[in-house]
UniProtKB/TrEMBL annotation:
GO terms for cellular component: ribonuclease P complex. It is an enzyme of class 3 (hydrolase). Keywords: Endonuclease, Hydrolase, Nuclease, RNA-binding, tRNA processing. One of its GO terms (biological process) is tRNA 5'-leader removal. The lineage of its organism: Bacteria, Pseudomonadati, Bacteroidota, Cytophagia, Cytophagales. This is Ribonuclease P protein component. It comes from Spirosoma radiotolerans. Its EC number is 3.1.26.5. InterPro entries: Ribosomal_Su5_D2-typ_SF, Ribsml_uS5_D2-typ_fold_subgr, RNase_P, RNase_P_CS. The keyword tRNA processing applies.
Length: 126
């Protein structure tokens, strides 16, 4: 996979987003790994044909904790860059999830190195 972040890799569909964040949904898998809470829908449950396409992702940073948009955007950029650089570690032996949501849970802005370390572990676990 090239180290790019194309428009097709961004999760924009309101229908899929509502399914991903619906409480008690059986199709959504979740786990917590600092500084993220990961929500994802496995490939087989959505589209078994599109195994070659990379997963569509969404990154959320809470407005309740980070009041200033500048801070939220900084964190979002760091998370996006960490994903872009490490998305090839997304379980090569099995099919990657179709949709992924990264929920930033840390209470303060952490360095890119820490975000990248958490991203690597999260992608391997998935």
């Amino acid at each position: 996979m090239p180290q790019t972040f194309a428009k097709s890799e961004r999760l924009c569909s309101k229908k899929i987003l509502s399914e991903l964040f619906k409480k008690g949904s059986t199709s959504v898998r979740t786990f917590y790994l600092f500084p993220f809470r990961m929500l994802y829908i496995p490939q087989s449950e959505t589209n078994p044909d599109s195994e070659t396409s990379p997963p569509a992702i969404v990154i959320t940073v809470p407005k309740r904790i980070f009041k200033r948009a500048v801070d939220r955007n900084l964190i979002r950029r760091r998370v996006r860059e960490a994903y872009r650089l490490n998305k090839d570690k997304l379980g090569p032996e099995k099919t990657p999830p179709a949709y992924i949501a990264f929920l930033y849970t840390a209470k303060q802005i952490i360095s890119f190195e820490e975000i990248e370390k958490g991203m690597k572990l999260a992608l391997k676990k998935m």
